[in-house]
Every structure is written in structure tokens, then in C-alpha cells.
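If your schedule permits, I should be very grateful for your opinion on a structural question. I have a record of one protein: its chain in single-letter code and its fold written as C-alpha cells. Would you kindly read the sequence against the C-alpha cells and tell me how you understand this chain to fold? Thank you for your consideration; the sequence and its C-alpha cells are set out here.


***
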Amino acid sequence: MTFSFAIKRYPILSFSQVRCIRKTSFFGTHFYSTNPEPENRASSGHIPWNQDSHTEYKSETEPDKKRSEDYRIPENPIVLCHGLLGFEYLSTGIPAFPRIDYWQGVSELLEDRGAVTMLTHVPAVSSIKLRADALKLNIGQRIKEIQEISPEKFPPGKPKVNIIAHSMGGLDARYLVASLKPSEFDVASLTTICTPHRGSPFADYLINLIGGTGLTQYYEISKRVGLDDIKAFHQLTRAYTTKTFNVEVKNDPEVRYFSYGARFSPTPLNIFKWPHSVIQKKEGDNDGMVSVESAKWGEYLGTLEEADHLDVINWHYRLDRLLQLRKTKFDAKLLYLQLADKLAKEGL
């Protein structure tokens, strides 16, 4: 038996169509909630935001947690940006194989509370510039689609968005804000989650492991299969981010910048066991791909305890978790409810 995959992007549909559609595609497109906007609620009982120390996020079952419906949502839409090798969702269209979302349940969680969310897709391994170009087009097109279908979803005036970016997606978004300066919309805030703002020692390790000759061969093979730009790996090294990217890409004073880091102790079966050990020796606490220190940018909102690089986007279905070899109190859904509430509190 053979399976065929199709790529579909950004059709203009009514919200009723969006609610019932099930596409058979490799890269899918997620749309927006039609739920009415909830009233802003009081923020009493909010778990404290601590930018100066490590913050342990309490689980859904702990008694001092607010009810999930008490968390507010920001006025402006939320854009979710994936990292290296990312996607919106993967699907074969076969019921026995459920689709895999990059942001596992995050957009649905926020939409159920009245938020407008946009999932984006950029080239998986391209340079930051090309990924940022695609991100700009993604956001602009999706804003246009929402405005055509439901213009009341945007406040009056030029559209504004709050970007939440995971891993390399944070570098894409920083480049978008600083260098592309989109005219179709403004960025109100950028929150990066486990983004290697100062690179990753594991990227250095892999580049050194492959060596110059190996890299040249890899690039040549990639070109033959249609991947003309695969500079992402090199641009995640510490040398490139600190000596080139951070020098050229400056923060926009009109944009609010927030960030999180994460750290955990891997079990032998955790997929990040190897990179975690490499990074631990060079920079200390890390999530298996990015150190806590490298993840800090703008206003640091805290370190996510016992969370690895995939836990933070709500991926649970991995061997060490399924076998209960690693238990964690970290609750990704609570993180995004808190973040949405934070953005709302800041008037974003």
C-alpha cells in the first residue's frame, strides 16, 4: 500500500467550515476560534511571575492554582512560531495514525478561552533570514484571512500581534521585528521559550564532529534533493549568534520582549540525554538543547523546572514518559494560560 501526501496552505474558509474540516495533508493549516471573547477577570491567586529566580510551575491539581477559566487572554492575536525542523502538524489522513501537532493542544487551549491564535510554518532547516521572510508572509496572510472572515477579531487600527516562539523560532521572530519591519502589522510582544539567543554548545559539537569536509558534502547532497538553503545548523552555533546575529539584530524599543528557559535531569531513555550532557559541561543547566543562560532575553520570566525541550510545547508521548521513568510537575498548559494572562495584564 502506498500513501500520498499533499501540502495545503492557507485556504480562505468560513469559521463553520474550519470547525468541521479534516484535511489529509502532510503540513496542515490551523485556523481560529469563533468563541466569544470572555470578560477579563480579576487576577487574584495568580501564580507569581519571578524574573530573578527559577520558577516551578504548579500542576493543574495543586490547590492554590486558579481555575483555568479565570486566566485572561490578551487583546491582540497570538502567533505561535515553531523551531528547527518544525511544522504545524503532520498527518497521513489515516484514522489509526492520529496527526501530530507541533504545539500540542496549546492553540486549542487558548482559543477555548476566546483568544485568536495563528499557527505558522517556515522552512525547516533554512537560514534565519529565509525563515523570517516566510514568517512575515505567514502572519500577513493570516491576518488578512481573519479580517475578511471576522474583522471584529482585531482592535481598531493597524493590526498587532503577540508572538510566542519556541527554540529557533525566537531567532526568526527577532529578525522579523528588527530587520524586516513589516508594514502590514506591528508586533506588540515577543516571548521566546527555550530559544538559543547565544547559541547552543550542542550545535558547536555537531559542526565540529562533522568537520568542514563533511559539511561541504552535506550541503551538496542537500542541494541535489532541493534544499538550497540549510544554514540553520550553522546559525545556531555560539560563534554565529554572539558575534554576528546579536550584533546585527537589535531589539526594537517599541516591542516588549519576554523569555523563559528550562532545565531537567534526563533519564537514560530520554532523547536529550546526549545533548544534555554536552551542554551541561559547557553552560550548566539546560533543557537538552538550550542552556538556561542562552535562553534569557529581554524580561526573563523564569526557568521552567523539570521540563525538557519538548515538554515546553506539551509533548508527552515519549518513551521515558510513557514508561513513567521520569515524572514531572511541569504543566505546559498552565504555562500558556499564565503567559496569556501576563500579556493581558500588560495590555498587549
